[in-house]
Design goal:
heterotrimer, A alpha/beta, B mainly alpha, C mainly alpha, B: three-stranded antiparallel beta sheet, 5 helices, nucleotide-binding (chain A), ATP-binding (chain A), ATP binding (chain A)
Chain lengths: 291, 126, 219
């Protein structure tokens, strides 16, 4: 089972928010969708789940269009950030009413799981959604996402309102659910470093385009931070793809992205260090230079 | 299997090395079952595919083997294999860096041998 | 199952609302006249409640249309319902409400079941369907242009207020409700008006669907 996204574009009022997205999401993977504010993450996820129409392009589930396709949509769920301001749709509802709606319309809803998670998170079922704290709202979003049991579940910033303890609990819950069911999860987040370990693949969305989509471990292995004496560093990075070169006195440093098969070895006044995912993201979304 | 993962090396390499270390320390004995990739994933909060990558490396090297439907087990002679390989890599892993650092500090090889024999730092004042 | 027949429940809501309003009216009339007998109640119902019944049900239905498009229907879409399903359910609710209210009105009217009465009933039924479709169209446009949503809520509240006030004034003046609608001249060309409303409804539904099928849902 897989979702294919073919040349998807989206315009909002003359502004091109998504500029030709090609993507394949496979069953049984956890993807991280990382991008700056305004990169188009929410838009992409809402289009991938047929919440909103693309201006151009197709989304297919196993070869069939998902737009207005009830059968296809029964396999997909998009857990948006629930907005609690008083004029939003969910605001008038109580937690239990919202859960009841989810139970009514999500075909694979697991009521026991929803019950268990609601208790685990100490969510007050009788509370109005507008009155919930930011953390509680995130937890409600997570409860519905997990209990939906959808084959493809998209979560938009699920941890934004959670403190670190709750975040760790979420990652563990997610892994538990994942190992048991092999559902696909696509999680958009700003808190990159924490989540990096659970993503099998990461997708960098930058200004409406996919900058990269790679296996997380491969990406990390192929990224090296080189520093040392300028001449030695220059010799080493000759012909390689480098980012953010900096010179300070007699020393130089740069981030190198190795291509398949390329290797770097240190020694002789050059230090090689690993780079974390957050650093790679910050560097890549800030431009690129070649030596 | 208690250490936390750090940023220094790829996670799956760390998983691999943790299992190897446990085998060396007799925490995991030959023909014993090794935690499954799902168990490892949940324990360290990492993606199961990453854990699997580390475990598969060990399978490729003949340190673990798979019993279908049951799990991964420590192969016979695994401990010896690990010791042999780590001995081969010992120079690169530990000595090379030491020699480079010593050179930049002006510590001679004789000083190093002395340190090793007496298991003490250089007492002379520079 | 709630999911499959949500329109059924919404239509039932409208009819219950109608019954509630009529019930209150009945009590008020009885108090005003100081007659509390089953006979007098029956007379009141037969004489005065048939047309107001369908009008109330229709207007409440229109209000419900706006309310649903504003709150629940987008949420249903967020849970995987197709826009087709949502739209179809809404049409089912509109028709079920008016059809059932029409039948109820018919039986409420007692002896007045003349041909003229049937024409009036049909007229009102189609006018209300038209009204509900206007509200639907405005709500759907309101999903895109948020200001419209407010305008349509205000309009329909105004209409409900007007209807209620009209009945109340009638009641206060005469102790009963005659619904001397200033439209009796219209009824002579009832066929024309029926066609106008029917056609108008069809056009509205057509345009509503055109807007709705690609509507953006921003929750």
């Amino acid at each position: 089972m897989k979702i294919e996204c073919r040349d998807v574009r989206k315009n909002y009022k003359k502004k091109e928010v998504l500029k030709g997205i090609d993507l394949v999401l496979e069953k049984g993977k956890i993807y991280g969708l990382i991008g700056r504010n305004g990169a188009g993450k929410t838009t992409l996820l809402s289009i991938l789940s047929a919440q909103n129409p693309a201006s151009f392009g197709n989304i297919l589930l196993d070869g069939r269009e998902i737009w207005e396709n009830a059968e296809a949509l029964s396999h997909i769920y998009f857990a948006r950030e629930i907005i609690t301001s008083s004029n939003s749709n969910a605001s008038g509802l109580k937690v239990k009413e919202y859960l009841k709606l989810a139970e009514t319309y999500l075909p694979r809803w697991d009521k026991d799981m929803a019950q268990r998670l609601t208790e685990l998170f100490h969510l007050d079922r009788k509370q109005r959604i507008t009155k919930l704290s930011k953390g509680m709202v995130s937890m409600l979003q997570i409860v519905v996402a997990l209990a939906s049991k959808a084959d493809f579940t998209f979560l938009d910033e699920p941890v934004s309102g959670l403190d670190v303890v709750a975040r760790e609990a979420f990652y563990r819950l997610l892994l538990e659910e994942f190992t048991e069911t092999e559902r696909t999860f696509v999680i958009s987040t700003h808190i990159i470093e924490e989540a990096a370990d659970i993503f099998e693949e990461v997708i960098f969305l930058h200004e409406g385009k996919i900058l990269l989509k790679e296996n997380t471990q491969d990406l990390l292995e192929h990224s090296v931070y080189v520093s040392g004496k300028t001449e030695a560093v220059d010799r080493l990075i000759q012909g390689k793809q480098i980012y953010c070169p900096e010179v300070l006195g007699r020393s130089k440093s740069a981030l190198v992205r190795l291509r398949e098969g390329e290797r770097l070895s240190g020694g002789e006044g050059v230090t090689l260090q690993g780079v974390n995912l957050q650093k790679i993201f910050v560097v890549l979304c800030g431009g690129e230079e070649r030596v | 299997m208690q250490e936390l993962l750090n940023q220094e090396k790829s996670i799956y390499i760390q998983i691999k090395e943790m299992i190897e270390t446990d085998i060396l320390r007799d925490i995991l004995l030959e023909e014993e079952r090794v935690p499954s990739t799902n168990e490892l994933a949940k324990l360290y909060a990492i993606n199961p595919a990453t854990a699997a990558k580390g475990v598969n490396l060990l399978v490729d090297e003949g340190i673990l083997y798979k019993k279908r439907g049951i799990g991964m087990f420590v192969a016979e002679g695994a401990k010896k294999t690990i010791q042999k390989r780590r001995r081969e890599n010992f120079f690169e892993t530990y000595i090379q860096g030491m020699l480079t650092e010593a050179a930049s500090l002006g510590i001679t090889k004789e000083d190093l041998i002395d340190m090793i024999t007496t298991e003490r730092g250089n007492q002379q004042e520079v | 199952m709630r999911k499959k027949k949500s329109w059924f429940y919404h239509a039932a809501d409208n009819l219950c609302g109608m019954a509630l309003f009529l019930g209150i009216l009945l009590v008020l009339i009885a108090v005003r006249r100081e007659e509390f007998s089953w006979e007098s109640a029956k007379t009141v119902i037969h004489n005065y409640f048939s047309l107001p019944g369908i009008v109330l049900a229709g207007v409440l239905g229109a209000f419900n249309v706006i309310l649903l498009y504003e709150s629940t229907e987008p949420l249903k879409i967020s849970f995987g319902c197709t826009r087709k399903q949502v739209f179809r359910d809404m049409q089912a609710m509109k028709i079920a409400t008016l059809f059932t209210a029409g039948i109820l009105s018919f039986f409420l009217s007692g002896q007045e079941r003349s041909r003229i009465f049937l024409k009036e009933l049909l007229f009102w039924g189609l006018l209300l369907l038209f009204l509900q479709s206007i509200c639907e169209c405005m709500s759907i446009l309101g999903m895109r242009y948020k200001g419209l949503m407010l305008v349509s809520i205000l309009c329909i509240s105004g209409i409900i207020g007007f209807v209620v006030a009209f009945m109340a004034m009638d009641f206060i003046k005469n102790g009963e409700i005659h619904m001397e609608w200033p439209i009796s001249g219209v009824l002579e060309n009832w066929l024309l008006w029926a066609a106008v409303f029917l056609l108008g409804t069809i056009l509205l539904v057509f345009f509503s669907w055109k807007f709705f099928r690609k509507a953006e849902v921003h929750i």
